[in-house]
Amino acid sequence: MLKTNFKKRKTYHMNILYDIQLIWCTISLLLIGLIMVTSSSMSIAQHMYNDLFFFTKKELLYLILALLLAKISLQTSTLFWKRNSGKIILTSIMLLLLVLTISNPINGSLRWIKVGFIHIQPAELSKLAMFCYLSNYLSRKHLKITNSLWEFYKPIGIVFIISILLLLEPDLGTVAIYYITILSLLFITGVKIWKFIPVILISIIITFVLIIMTPYRIERIFSFWNPWNDPFGTGYQLTQSLMALGRGKIFGVGLGHSIQKLEYLPEAHTDFIFSIIGEELGCFGVCIILFIIFFISFRALKIGKNAFKNNEIFSGYFATSIGIWFISQTLINIGTTIGLVPAKGLTLPLISYGGSSSIIMCIAISILIRIDFETKMKNKFYLN
């Protein structure tokens, strides 16, 4: 009897300390992602490597590594991230410089550092590093930033410098995530709207210049406006994506029965996996997955709000930045697949094939759980 009561007390104790719903939602997305990566990659894996489960095996290895690193970060105090934010961002910058010098181009981009059979993408690490650094900066300067132009533009300047390295890869998608997140965080601090106008105007001008200077970006814009003008050329990927989503209808054609994944739709297991989900699982399956993703995102915002209430400023900004990051990356990825925004090369969080993305996002989720844990401990919501 005493042993049974102890087990019940321990289970309740764990439910109080850790956000069980957040954990299960994350595990659910990882499992769904593994299943969909397997389904969408079998054709190309057989063609390229003569192994139906080549990408599945690699994704499973990445997930094991992601969960191990997530466990370590879960046991790491948020004070560690705050104290070492400068070192983390410097490491990220060094990796971004390294990838420009030693990596081999893949699809015309210098984004990956090969270590054995594993490819590391520094841009993914740079997201977490940047948001950690910005959270530390804002936690120290949040009272001054509303009154001082220098304190306002200083973090934007740092983001601008790192954005140059990312644009040299090129990786415009990560830069977009940067600016969406930093402007949102600065808005949360109470900065007046007029201060954002120069930043937004300069960003629009720079983006316009980058587009007209690069022929392939101009082609993407025209194909994005009307992909059916050239369905077998510049508009091919988007038209195939739209066809996949159209075939899915309400309940989909069934898991494993996609036609577009048979090497009709490029990047079906990475950037455009959402299209295959729509084709095989239909609108019903898509809505369930999006509900889970946005549940995690808004949970992150709630965790950040609770941290602010408890005067944990760094934790509040860090959790909020992770929530905004997940929301914006999901919206851009989906916007790409349905033709609302030009292709950006961003993964669907916790679902698309990609080791670096899965690892960094699992670490980010574990940081959220840790922040929530520390907030509850501070409020004495735990059992003695």
UniProtKB/TrEMBL annotation:
The pathway is: Cell wall biogenesis; peptidoglycan biosynthesis
The compartments listed are: Cell inner membrane; Cell membrane
Q: Which residue ranges run through the membrane?
A: 21-40, 60-81, 88-106, 118-138, 150-168, 174-191, 198-218, 272-296, 317-338, 350-371
The Swiss-Prot or TrEMBL record describes its family as follows: Belongs to the SEDS family. FtsW subfamily.
Q: Report what the protein is called.
A: Probable peptidoglycan glycosyltransferase FtsW
Major enzyme class: transferase
GO BP term (any one): cell wall organization
Task: List the molecular function annotations (GO) for this entry.
Answer: lipid-linked peptidoglycan transporter activity; peptidoglycan glycosyltransferase activity
Reaction catalysed by this enzyme: [GlcNAc-(1->4)-Mur2Ac(oyl-L-Ala-gamma-D-Glu-L-Lys-D-Ala-D-Ala)](n)-di-trans,octa-cis-undecaprenyl diphosphate + beta-D-GlcNAc-(1->4)-Mur2Ac(oyl-L-Ala-gamma-D-Glu-L-Lys-D-Ala-D-Ala)-di-trans,octa-cis-undecaprenyl diphosphate = [GlcNAc-(1->4)-Mur2Ac(oyl-L-Ala-gamma-D-Glu-L-Lys-D-Ala-D-Ala)](n+1)-di-trans,octa-cis-undecaprenyl diphosphate + di-trans,octa-cis-undecaprenyl diphosphate + H(+)
The cross-references to Pfam families, in alphabetical order and at most eight, read: FTSW_RODA_SPOVE
Q: Give its E.C. classification number.
A: 2.4.99.28
Q: What does this protein do?
A: Peptidoglycan polymerase that is essential for cell division.
Q: Does the keyword Lipid biosynthesis apply?
A: no
> Would you say which domain of life the source belongs to?
Bacteria
- Is DNA-binding among this UniProt entry's keywords? no
Mainly localized where? membrane
Source species of the chain: Buchnera aphidicola subsp. Schlechtendalia chinensis
Query: What is its membrane topology?
Result: Multi-pass membrane protein
Record's GO cellular component, any one?
A: cell division site
Give the InterPro entries listed for this entry.
FtsW, FtsW/RodA
> What are the record keywords, sorted?
Cell cycle, Cell division, Cell inner membrane, Cell membrane, Cell shape, Cell wall biogenesis/degradation, Glycosyltransferase, Membrane, Peptidoglycan synthesis, Transferase, Transmembrane, Transmembrane helix
